[in-house]
Amino acid sequence: MAVRLDRNKSLNELENLDWSEPTYHSTLVTTCHTLRRKSLNKFTVEDLRIMIGQTINLSYLVPMAVEALEA
Known about the structure:
Mean pLDDT: 93
Distance between the termini: 21 Å
Number of helices: 4
Structural class: mainly alpha
Number of strands: 0
Helix content: 40-55%
């Protein structure tokens, strides 16, 4: 069953969970925290690659990645 999601929302909004500011300062950690606040309709293929590579929110992001590959 496909998950219907509002792509106008961010991952933080969809999960009702804010990761707040990162406590470990690296480019990757900071990027992942920033992407959690970005609305899904503004995600690029690179954004998907980063988040999926870190196994973050796969149930939302893998279907989006498949759509991008099919296009």
